[in-house]
Amino acid sequence: MLDLIAFDADDTLWHNETIYSLTQNKLKQLLSKYRNTDTLEDDLYATERRNLHYFGYGIKSFTLSMIETAIELTDGQIQGRDIEQIINFAREMLETPTQLLEHVEETIAALSKTHKLMIITKGDLFDQETKIAQSGLADYFTHIEIVSEKTAGTYQILLDKYNLNPSRFLMVGNSLRSDVLPAVEIGGRAVHIPYHITWQHETAANESQADYFELEHIGLLPGFIETLR
Amino acid sequence: MLDLIAFDADDTLWHNETIYSLTQNKLKQLLSKYRNTDTLEDDLYATERRNLHYFGYGIKSFTLSMIETAIELTDGQIQGRDIEQIINFAREMLETPTQLLEHVEETIAALSKTHKLMIITKGDLFDQETKIAQSGLADYFTHIEIVSEKTAGTYQILLDKYNLNPSRFLMVGNSLRSDVLPAVEIGGRAVHIPYHITWQHETAANESQADYFELEHIGLLPGFIETLR
């Protein structure tokens, strides 16, 4: 039934949003000596949204937005050494070892014996390559694609590139907005596996009533795929 | 004689280092009210080198290094609003329209009629995609590859991926370190077209006495390729 199964990476194969969330807490702590930080999460997200068009996704972009938000929230009063701390947060994020989600290793190993597998991940090339290398999973995947945005157009280009029939293509990921809805839009199949935290930017309503499957964790995927045959 | 001609992008197809250089001058100006900035260029490069392992190439990485250097050089005295200025420099860099080098448009158009062409560029995915789109050249290239580093290993992987014979592969670029020497190392041919500014990091001595060609500008490339036949 399937010629290829594609996986999102961040929060689908390994933990990611937890690291951003922890870092946001560090920033909150750092800024608490200057002012009340109750609105920090929304303020930071507003800066990130504004900067997305310039800086794209990833840790460096997030860091520039943290610095900018910190300057705005403190009305320019933040000390240089505290901004240096924010850059240190970025290095700590980048030094955090890639931690696979539960069931990932055995599931990917098993599926690689019966199917061609691909990673389709968006974000910073450098961050993503580092995580893919650290994950130890690279050899299970026939193709690895790092893209700057995951829209229906992106999926169409990749399917054309690898000469794939959308009805025999399955996309697996934690983001309705980036993994599920655009894959369904171009006629593909999709499995949504929610992660316990979702970045505001990745939330989406299923307004088009797209037809997709939902699984609780990736370990259930091989059994689900059997039912497709 | 050639199955494919690959081009570096920054400072080979369009201006790039000039924008970094102009921005460095703006930083120098900004910091001059705090201290003597005679050593700024070397100080900034030292920070960039140290950060390369964490942040990779590109404007965001450069910006984080500018901020860090500014904090260090002012011993933490730099004002938040001045750091905001540095982030504005980054947005200005990203808003600078991609400006093709002389002779590029007609040369690429002409060569695309007789040869398969590829871009092999390193750096930030988001920056590079933006510049490729803006350049108006994308349709002339059969393949576009954005990589995080350009070593002999990188070239070998790409030649394997596209099933190319190195002796029938020509790499064209402005950097001896990233374009010329590694391409020659894997048995490819290379043309060096120097740009008028070279980032310290891209300088290299031709210690292995690698055999490559040098042209003054890209407009001379079609005539040179004729001589290879």
Helix and strand arrangement:
The structure is a homodimer of 229-residue chains.
Chain A: E1 4-7, H1 17-31, H2 40-55, H3 59-73, H4 80-95, H5 104-114, E2 116-122, H6 125-135, E3 143-147, H7 152-161, E4 169-173, H8 176-185, E5 189-192, E6 213-214, H9 221-228
Parallel strand pairs in A: 1-2, 1-4, 2-3, 4-5, 5-6
Helix pairs in contact in A: 1-3, 1-4, 2-3, 3-4
Description:
- Chain A is an alpha/beta fold.
- The first copy, chain A, folds into 2 domains: 4-15 and 99-228, HAD superfamily/HAD-like (Rossmann fold, 3-Layer(aba) Sandwich); 17-95, Putative phosphatase, domain 2 (DNA polymerase, domain 1).
- Chain A is 49% helix and 12% strand.
- Chain A contains 9 helices and 6 strands; from the N terminus they run E-H-H-H-H-H-E-H-E-H-E-H-E-E-H.
- Chain A has helices at residues 17-31, 40-55, 59-73, 80-95, 104-114, 125-135, 152-161, 176-185, 221-228; strands spanning 4-7, 116-122, 143-147, 169-173, 189-192, 213-214.
- Chain A has a 6-stranded parallel sheet, sandwiched between helices.
- The longest helix of chain A is centred in the N-terminal third of the chain and has 16 residues, at 40-55.
- The interface between A and B is medium-sized, with 33 and 33 residues.
Q: Note the total helix count of chain A.
A: 9
- Cα shape of chain A: elongated
> At CATH's second level, what is the architecture of the largest domain in chain A?
3-Layer(aba) Sandwich
Largest sheet of chain A: 6 strands, parallel
Report the top-level CATH class of the largest domain in chain A.
Alpha Beta
Calculate the mean pLDDT score of chain A and round it: 94
Q: State the CATH topology of the largest domain in chain A.
A: Rossmann fold
Based on helices, strands and strand pairing, what is the structural class of chain A?
alpha/beta
Spatial strand sequence of the major β-sheet of chain A: 3-2-1-4-5-6
Overall number of structural domains of chain A: 2
CATH superfamily grouping of the largest domain in chain A:
HAD superfamily/HAD-like
Of all protein chain pairs, which has the greatest interface, and how many residues does each chain bring to it?
A-B, 33 and 33 residues
Number of strands of chain A: 6
Q: Which bin fits the share of residues in helices of chain A?
A: 40-55%
